[in-house]
Amino acid sequence: MPVSDDFQKAQRFREAALPYLDDVYTLARYLLRDASDAEDAVQECYLRALKHFDSYRGPAMKPWLFAILRNVCNAEYARRAHSHAAIEDTPGAVDETPMWQENEASPEAEVLRNRDAGAIRKMIDALAEPFKETFVLREINNLSYREIAEAVGAPVGTVMSRLARARAMLRAAWMAEEEHSK
Amino acid sequence: MTCDEAKILLHALLDNELDAGHAREVEAHIATCPACAAELAAQREMRHALAGAKLRYTAPASLRARIEASLPQARPQPSRRSVLRGFAMGSAVSALAASGVVAVVLRQDDQQRILSEVVSAHLRSLQAGHLIDVVSTDQHSVKPWFNGKLDVAPPVIDLTAQGFTLVGGRLDYVDARAIGAVVYKRRQHIINLFVSQTASTEHRPPKTQTMQGFNCRRWGERGLNFWAVSDIGGDELTEFVDKFEAAMKANVEG
Ligand SMILES: [Zn+2]
Questions:
Q1: Is residue A78 pLDDT above 90, yes or no?
Q2: How many whole angstroms separate alpha carbon B60 and alpha carbon A73?
Q3: Signal peptide location in the record (chain B) (predicted)?
Q4: Got the DSSP string for B200-249?
Q5: What is the 8-class DSSP label of residue A20?
Q6: Rounded Cα gap, residues B194 and B46, in angstroms
C-alpha cells in the first residue's frame, strides 16, 4: 500500500478518534482501577480501532471506541481472573438480585454533605459490574441511553435498569458513609 | 404505572430521555406516590452532588505521545534514501562535500516533517472543544497555566490592541513532544502559535511556507522555535508575526 494512503488513513483516524482520548482513558481508569493498566488498555484500544477503521461505519465514534475498550478490558479482566469478575453482556445473577432496598431514612430530610472528587471516585470504583460501567458511561462520559446500549451491546431497557440500580447503590454507599462519619 | 416501573423511569426523566407522553405518566405517578417522589428527590440531590465533582480523568501526555507515535507518519517525497542514493551516484561530488550537503538535506527533511506535524496539530485544534485548554483574554492567566506543564513556558503576549485577540492556550504534541500553543483570533480565523524549546540560540528570520492550504510562518529566537499557523493570508500572518516579535522585544527590553 502506498505510504500516502496509509498516512491519509492515519490522519483521518487521528482527527476522528484522538479527540476522545480523555473519555476513553476515563472509562479505562474506572473499569481497571489502575493508572498504568488503563494506559496500556487505551493504547491497545486505539491500535485496534485504527486496524478496524476502514470498516467503521458507525455508531458514533465515542460509543464505538468504548465498545473496543470494553473488549480490551475484558481481556485484561481474564488475565487478572483471580481478582476481578469480567463484565458480562448477558443479564446474569447480579441482574436478578432484588433491585430495591427500603430507604432507611427519608432522603428528603437528609442533606448530602459535599464530598471531594477522590471520595466519590472511590465509591464509584466500588460499584459492581455491569452497573459501574453503565453509570460511568452515562454520568461521566455523557452518553445517551441509546449510545450506552450500542457500546455495551445490551438492550436499552437493560441499560435503564442497570443505571437505576447503579444510582441506588451509589446513593446507599453515600448515605452509609455519611452515617459512618457522624 | 407500578412503583418498580416508576423507579426506573424516573432516571430517564432526570436524564431527559423520555418522550413527552411517558414523562407525563411518570410525573402523574410521582404526584400520587410519596415513596417514588422521595426517590426522585434523592436522585436529584445526588445528581447535584455529583455535578460539581471532577470525576473525569485526563490522559497523560506520555500516553497521547505513545499513541501518536504508533500512527503512520507523513513522509515527504522523495525519501531520504533516494536523495542519498542520488548523491552517491554523482561521482563528481567529493565525499566531504556530499556529507555536508546530505546534512543539509536531512535537516530540511526533518523540518518538513515537523512542519507537517504542526499543520496537523493546527487542524486538530479546529475541532469542536479542542482549541483551548485554558480560556483567556488576559495574558496574566494564560502564562501561569503553562508553568509546570512544559520545561519552558511559551511567551504569552496579548495582541488584542493590535488586532489579534488572545483567546487562550493549549498543550499540544509535535514531534512526539509536548509543546505549548498560544491561540489568537483574527476576525473568525484562528491562529495557533506553537512554541518549543531548541538548543540553538541563533536568530532565524521568519519564513512563510504553505502546506495543505495553511500558511505557516516559522522563526527562531532566544532558544525558542516558533510556528504561526493559520488560514489567514500570508500578508496578515506576516503582520501578526511582526507585531508579536516587536511586542516580545519590547517586553524583554522593558
Ligand atoms: Zn411509586
A1: no
A2: 19
A3: none
A4: --S-EEEEEEEETTEEEEEEEETTEEEEEEESS-HHHHHHHHHHHHHHHH
A5: G
A6: 42
B41/A42 CB distance under 8 A: no
Given this model, what pLDDT does residue B76 score? 45
Average pLDDT over residues A22-42: 94
CATH numbers and ranges of domains, chain A: 2-80 (1.10.1740.10), 91-181 (1.10.10.10)
Domain ranges in chain B are 3-52, 61-253
Burial class of residue B1 in the structure, from the number of CB atoms within 10 Å of its CB (0-12 exposed, 13-18 middle, 19+ buried): middle
The overall pTM is greater than 0.80? no
Q: Kindly report the CA angle at A157 between B53 and A72, in degrees rounded to 5? A: 65
CA distance to A73, A90, A107, A130, B46, per residue, from B9 (Å):
30, 22, 19, 19, 16
Is the predicted pLDDT of residue B87 greater than 50, yes or no?
A: no
3-class SS at B2? coil
Q: Residue A173: how many CB atoms within 10 A of its CB? A: 16
Helix ranges, chain B (H): 3-14, 20-32, 34-51, 61-70, 80-89, 95-125, 139-146, 234-253
Quote the CA–CA distance of A172 and A101 in Å, as a whole number.
Answer: 9
At A131 the pLDDT is 94
Render pLDDT for A133-165 as a digit per residue (tens, 0 to 9): 999 999 999 898 988 998 998 888 899 999 999
d(CA B149, CA A61): 29
Bridge partners of B147, per DSSP, are B150
Mutate to test the interface with A, among B9, B13, B15, B67 (most CBs of A within 10 A): B67
Tell me if residue B95 falls in helix, strand or coil: helix
Highest CATH level, class, for B61-253: alpha beta
Rounded Cα–Cα distance for residues B237 and B230 (Å): 7
Cα maximum dimension of chain A: 68
Report how far Cα B140 is from the mean position of its chain's Cα atoms: 20
**Residue range B195-240, pLDDT digits in tens:** 988 777 778 899 998 887 789 999 988 888 899 999 899 999 999 9
Across the interface, do A43 and B67 touch by the CB < 8 Å criterion? yes
ipTM of the complex: 0.80
Looking at beta carbons, which residues of chain A come within 8 Å of B10? 164
